[in-house]
Amino acid sequence: MKEEAVVYRNAHDPLRDETRDVWVVRGRIAEGPVPGARAVDLRGAPLRPKFVDPHAHVLPMGLDLVRPSVAGCASREEILDRLRDALNLVARGDWLVAAGYDPNRLSESESLSLDDLDRLSTDVPIVLRHVSGHGSLVNSAVLRIAGIDDQTPDPPGGRIGRRADGRPNGWLLERAQEALRKVAPKEDVETMARAVLRACQKLSEMGIGTVADMMTGYYDLRRELRAYALAARRGCPVRLRLYLQWSAVFGPKARHGWEEDLVDADPSRCRVAGIKVFADGALGARTAAIRGAYLGDPTPPSGWSGVLTYRPARLREMVRRAHEAGWSVAIHAIGDHALDLAMQALRETGEPSRHRIEHAMIADERQIGELARLGCRVCVQPEFLADFAEAYAQSLGPERMARLNPLGSMHRAGVRLCLGSDRPICKGDPEDYVRLATHRPPGFDPEERLDPRTAYAAATKEAAAALGDADLGSLEPGSWADLLADPASGLNPSERGPESRSDAS
Ligand SMILES: [Zn+2]
């Protein structure tokens, strides 16, 4: 039988930085005192809300967990060996899709090419996904099936990598990857649900109680929604918040009636939180839209300043439509050029504070002031600095790199910050990304760090608020009692709040 009421006596609340009694009644934090509550004395040990990760890719993370990966491979031979092993397990008619390729870990001469993949197989389609998710290297079987050749123009917001003679070199960057989604075999709902549960089991082990998927509808909106709802019904230990791809809801091929796929889901466990729109790409892949140019290197050509996913007028119109339909919009904008366009789009909604900007990695003082005035939420990923420093140094040089993720300036200006992971691009342990916000890695301006309490709030209460969940991420009365068992607190899992289910298995 579930317990009705518990009081955690002398619990240290890290958000308020005070020690007090915290009452839990039927899974929610309550105003005390509650007669008959069972008492647990924490003797000043912390009682913490579970973390909220407001920017993740849950299904892709889960699929990566069930798919082969070359993450962690230190040499080209090791990568090719892994791919060769994985190829042996590919069923007839299936593709080999491998994740986690990070050419920045290899020397230039070691990087893999189309020819390398073709030496593995010219029959089985092979896709090697860049660790950032912003590019994929494919073999010629994929190019053939996708109909990509030297005559194919770059799609809007994307680039087909080419050799000197114009033939594709196997790299599909940004939206050029959409050609893959159209022709690759799709996962079924059951596989997707299992992937979501696999991912959330890992999240739960990291102390995360709520996660937002930022690209629901990338593969197939209705299948994905059914998979998330199914995972929630099967006792998914993490609350699911979904941001739907703009095109899946408003685009010409949008499929109506998707709301039905979630009707059975308990909205506190699984619901749609908003709409996701891209303004640009990523810095490591040199596709984020920056002012000025990326540092040389033969490809891309010098003077290259990234890719806008949409023309500015189109971006504004997309944001307006989602806004008018009543949604919160989250705009991915990494470069400073993209950031200006994103802010303009939000300003034109007349209600910018309802919306979010994702990443905002390059922002000068004027832009930071503008973010504060707009009052939109800004979701930053501190782990990028630790994971991709080398790529940033190569693409931007030391000075521009040092200023990336100006969290300190943003906080001092009053920007409403939250911290997220962008998993599976990063490992995404909240303890790690909170620490990286308070202790920036070497090469990054230490003035741009956050104080520990602000960083912690940005990973809990503020992250929940960015998802529209005012009743998550804190120990305030009315909040869900998603409580973390802190080893130091003397709490054991059976003493956690009745709503915290991560101890279930
Ligand atoms: Zn993301």
Give the helices and strands, then pairings.
Elements: E1 5-13, E2 18-25, E3 28-30, E4 38-41, E5 48-49, E6 51-56, H1 58-66, H2 76-88, E7 96-101, H3 114-120, E8 126-130, E9 135-138, H4 140-146, E10 158-162, E11 168-174, H5 178-183, H6 189-205, E12 208-216, H7 221-233, E13 239-245, H8 246-250, E14 270-278, H9 312-324, E15 329-333, H10 336-349, E16 356-359, H11 365-374, E17 377-380, H12 383-387, H13 389-396, H14 398-402, H15 407-413, E18 416-419, H16 430-438, H17 452-458, H18 461-466, E19 483-484
Parallel strand pairs: 1-4, 6-12, 7-8, 12-13, 13-14, 14-15, 15-16, 16-17, 17-18
Antiparallel strand pairs: 1-2, 2-3, 5-19, 8-9, 9-11, 10-11
Helix pairs in contact: 1-6, 6-7, 9-10, 10-11, 16-17
Zinc ion is lined by residues 55, 57, 214, 422.
Number of domains: 4
Distance between the termini: 17 Å
Helix and strand composition category: alpha/beta
Name the CATH homologous superfamily of the largest domain.
Metal-dependent hydrolases
The percent range for strand residues is 15-25%
CATH class of the largest domain: Alpha Beta
Are any ligands bound, and if so which? zinc ion
> Residue share in helices?
25-40%
Strand order of the largest sheet: 6-12-13-14-15-16-17-18
Number of helices: 18
Please, what is the oligomeric state? Answer: single chain
Number-wise, the strands total 19
